[in-house]
Prior knowledge:
The protein is of the alpha/beta class. It is built from 5 helices and 5 strands, in the order βαβααβααββ. InterPro entries: PIN-like_dom_sf, PIN_dom, Type_II_TA_system_RNase.
Amino acid sequence: MRVAERGLLDTSVLFDLDDIDLDRLPDYWAISAVTLAELSAGPAAANDPVERARRANQAHAVSELVECISFDDRAARAYALVYGAVMKAGRKPKRRAFDLLIASCALAEGLDLYTRNPGDFRGLEELIRVIHI
């Protein structure tokens, strides 16, 4: 598969970034503000102080390395399309709220969405290209 020139990385890709062949990622990649929120909350969820520090360092490094795309009015309007597509597919949007907000950012920006968990985005095939890494 040809790699797109531009793409939005899902949180799952960032968790496994050390294990991913970077040639499979687009030349330009960004994250959504939702992904940054998930990464920023990660340290609070860790009980082990070493793991907490690792997660904090990862969140900081990622925020310095890539562009963070805001969840703006265009993404909010795109969310209506994403929500509707998931409902049409017979899925429950509330269970995947963060994933759908991330997908809305990809749709609003016209970016492919790179993920380790393509099932999280099932039902969105007509709206965005989801690439399993």
